[in-house]
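Dear colleague,

Following up on Tuesday's group meeting, I ran the structure prediction for the two-component complex that the binding team flagged. I've pasted the input sequences exactly as they went in, so you can double-check that nothing got truncated or mislabelled along the way. The structure tokens for the whole assembly follow below. Feel free to forward this to whoever is handling the docking comparison.

Inputs:
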Amino acid sequence: MYNQDFFFQALIYLLAAVVSVPLAKKLGMVSVLGYLLAGIIIGPFVLGLVGNEAGEVMHFAEFGVVLMLFVIGLELEPSLLWKMRRSIFGLGGLQVLFTALLIAAVALIFNFQVNRAIGIGLILALSSTAIVLQTLTEKGLLKNVAGRSAFSVLLFQDIMVVPIFALIPLLASFNTNLSIAETEVEEISFVGSLPGWAQLLFIIGALTFIILIGRFVSKYIFRFIAETNLHEIFTAMALLLVIGIALGMDAVGLSPALGTFLAGVVLADSEYRHELETTIDPFKGLLLGLFFISVGASINFYLFVEDPVTIIGFVLTLVVLKFIVLLMLGRFFRLRKGYEFLFAFLLAQSSEFSFVLISFSKQSQLFDEQTSGLLLLIVTLSMAVSPLLLLFNDKAVSPILAKWQNRLDYDTVEESENPIIIAGFGRFGLVVGRMLLANNFNVTIIDNNPANVEVLRKFGFKLYYGDVTRPQVLEKAGVENARLLILSMAEYDNALKIAQFVRKKYPHIKILARAKDIFHAFEFFKLGVKTVQREVFNSGLELGSKALENLGFTRYEAYRSSRIFKHHEDEIFSELYDHWKAGETHFIQEARRFSEQMSETLQAEKDYSIHDADCAWDVESIREEAEGKVNSENKG
Amino acid sequence: MNKILILFAHPAFHKSRINMVLVDAVKNLEGVTFHDLYENYPDFFIDIQKEQQLLLGHDIIVWQHPFYWYSAPALHKEWMDLVLEHGFAYGIHGRSLEGKKVLSVISTGGRMDVYSIEGRNRYTINQFLVPYRQSVNLCRMEYLPPFVVHGSHTIEKQEIEQYGKKYRHAIELLRDNKLNNVDLENAEYLNDIID
């Protein structure tokens, strides 16, 4: 009976996820919104398929949050943190500080207690990593200045989740409203019964234990397990590790999330990091999905129906406050030319972490039912409007800014009759551009990094600042009459989009493109762009040839080998392309992309033997003929 | 009708005066395959199998190039080294090219009188061409008298045009087998027996 019930619940949750997440994706929403939507639909407000047990499910699904913090820890590279310290701690820190203060102030106006106001401020100050990162990836903005700044802020917020977790029970302890009788009597753990100094000792001991195990012991354990070559045992080990730490932390009275986060950080530079990440990822994803569904199911829409004006007012206040703080900070941290707007619009919603923190606050008795219901609703709605904000930025704000911007830029860019347009002037484009200039060709460069634009202009390059993916920018640069369009940008997906646009609208223009890897090159091929250069292939080839030199090949022999290999690669390339085209619907996950490429190329390599191009320089056959005492004619 | 393969080698084709006209005169003729070596193999990486297939598909091979240091540009020599493989072009089993004809089409800076025993270059064109003649012979092919354009630095535009026409005519005659074998054997230059 119980089983049936369990499977029925599982059926509903899974069905809801499988139906609504892909649907949400199709509509251009991120998966978090899809899960929320699924929850809302199966929840009491719409279909009523799930009811009270949603709370229990949420409790279980919170383990997804623990896993998420473990993965965040794994992804934190100390070196990256150090490199981006200014924007992470400066920009991120100030964002959280100011936003939290402002929101707390608003909460105070609405008669919330100080401790609750602080809690609300901190929780709502966070922005949605899921929404923003997905948007950045989809729009190819990860390497752009606004994108990088947004990333820094998100990183800081991710780190902040841990102290906020720790802070919530502390804030809750200042509650004056709740009578002691109302609070659940907490189970007193073994550690909890010890005196204060012993508890502290236990906590320090537990943390040290995690660090020591992670640093010095885990390596051997993982190696031992990896050597068994049983993938499921590795999975079991990874889960065991996380669950063990979570329980251990619980026992000493610390948050499980904090413990696993710490374990993640400790393991971040172990050689099993990626393996751990990919192993934990599906569990994390599913459990978080479950978590968001149960959040969706528990959102109280009656609140909204009762007083829509107030709710909308709250959502607007939240978004506007966040936007203003972000815009000011963006300016202060030298984001210019519309990037400060993009940055502010990107981060103006609240976060999926907010759900976690709100439900945790409810458990810790910081918020009552009413407050948490209200907050959940506000967070959900703020996330829902976030795609609209970006749309608004794209369609209304940035064209106006661009018009204003390009007026400034115009006097420095002379129109040329048949320009050669280079889109993207980073490490790659620079080489291409310099070579063309050295051969006396005038090039029009479009780049979206304002820092680059200013420096290069100083050296007399003809530069145009702008976002190439926008047709207006391309048109202003004279794409219509261009002789060549060179796509040398590192935003690979954008490059494809431009290629597609230009092929369609200006089919006569020759496009030359930089490709990330073989699959990216195939995509270009499919669009009819035939001149595609894989960005690292030739460098790899040259280093390979130098390796041969160091192994005793003569320099020419090594060079020849590299040419033969390149030729051979060309054959493989076209073979793989046909293969790829035939089975194009193959779903290749980004993470598996490289290993896929490797196995396919290596397989094709096996089928094609390298033809020895230099047979004629090999006198073996002539010697054989001469030794055969045949009256042979000789070459020289 | 003979099929003719023109193997053209000129590292600075865009700067040439003579070869530009000569090439234009013949490259679109029926039965002629024009194959620009420097254009196809800028990195000197010759596709040997493809080249050998091309040779097998034609009856007359034309080696057209400027006469650098009394010889051909480097890529042409690379082509000979690699494509004319032992066992394919020569050796007891190397009979793939047997019976084909080879014509050298060369342009020289010096005028004809310079290429004589009394002249500055001390040898005739045909003496300089001995390595080619013997290579062709080793491959059991027949070496035709060369088509030569002399004085490439000083020659007038009009005269170049005439050379072009003559070259075109020569290729047509070879293609259609209209040249007398005795004439061919006795001629110093191919130019001499074309009207």
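The domain at 4-193 of chain B is CATH 3.40.50.360 (Rossmann fold).

Cheers,
M.
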